[in-house]
């Protein structure tokens, strides 16, 4: 282990990283709250301001993945599809198998310039969580209560509000509803067998109703579905803690662009289409397992400096007053003050580690 890698694995570094993220996040939340009067004057201006404030926060996590961890993200896609990325609204269907699959998704949002405006379907409870949850609230993230009869109307209304959104966005869907585990896979395949559906080896059975509602309500706004399949080289098992420790991973993402017009409008036909899509995704994962690569050419965009510049800016802005404060506490010699400061920093670290990307877990099939 090199000296730099050893430094990245130290708890003190983790405290500093999490302190910057949490405190800058709360400050950004405050700025977002201050945009409320702007909404009454110009909704579109308020939206554009919140897009940039959201970028200030979410790009810090992207910078941690790309610059701190050094994780490499490779994109497999067709050149004729590549030219559309970042220039249109899209629904992104991503497999949910890893702790950091959302971070890899954010990385490509950043590289194509849609990180600040991109959306996700999330649990209603997260809208009350400081930092990420509050950021999502002002960003008009679509929240659900995990009760289908209520969600059907609630989600449809939230999606309809995005039809006049001023900038391009990607809407992320985890159609499997929850992260893949062997136990969940076994239960899911029992359900598939009982319904006469093909058995999937690398995915859970997709939840079709949420997908259908999303597609129907974004017709005329979203141009395509980006079928995205993620895997990691050499059977790596990436974790958020590993990223925090500076461990380098190698992510491969295969993306197919499917025009929204090709997806059936009828609910039953749309459900059958989604099941077929997941059979194809399963074959791509099997090919990756056998060959170590996805089909199609590699046309990965380079990482951008903006996420690093933003991260360094907020680090300097947040660490300067902390340094002044700690210097004053140490100079005062007050043991109580020092202990309170350490407890605060530890709480910030724990909060950041416990927070993970959440998606819709309990929509019925």
Automatic annotation (TrEMBL):
Record keyword Nucleotide-binding present: no
Transmembrane parts of this sequence: 12-33, 311-330, 336-357
InterPro entries: Acyltransf_C, Plipid/glycerol_acylTrfase
Pfam families, alphabetized: Acyltransf_C, Acyltransferase
EC number(s) stated in the UniProt entry for this protein: 2.3.1.51
Pathway per the UniProt entry: Lipid metabolism; Phospholipid metabolism; CDP-diacylglycerol biosynthesis; CDP-diacylglycerol from sn-glycerol 3-phosphate: step 2/3
GO cellular component, one term: mitochondrial outer membrane
Alphabetical GO biological process terms: phospholipid biosynthetic process
Catalyzed reactions: (4Z,7Z,10Z,13Z,16Z,19Z)-docosahexaenoyl-CoA + 1-(9Z-octadecenoyl)-sn-glycero-3-phosphate = 1-(9Z-octadecenoyl)-2-(4Z,7Z,10Z,13Z,16Z,19Z-docosahexaenoyl)-sn-glycero-3-phosphate + CoA; a 1-acyl-sn-glycero-3-phosphate + an acyl-CoA = a 1,2-diacyl-sn-glycero-3-phosphate + CoA; 1-octadecanoyl-sn-glycero-3-phosphate + (4Z,7Z,10Z,13Z,16Z,19Z)-docosahexaenoyl-CoA = 1-octadecanoyl-2-(4Z,7Z,10Z,13Z,16Z,19Z-docosahexaenoyl)-sn-glycero-3-phosphate + CoA; 1-octadecanoyl-sn-glycero-3-phosphate + (9Z,12Z)-octadecadienoyl-CoA = 1-octadecanoyl-2-(9Z,12Z-octadecadienoyl)-sn-glycero-3-phosphate + CoA
UniProt family annotation: Belongs to the 1-acyl-sn-glycerol-3-phosphate acyltransferase family.
Protein name: 1-acyl-sn-glycerol-3-phosphate acyltransferase delta
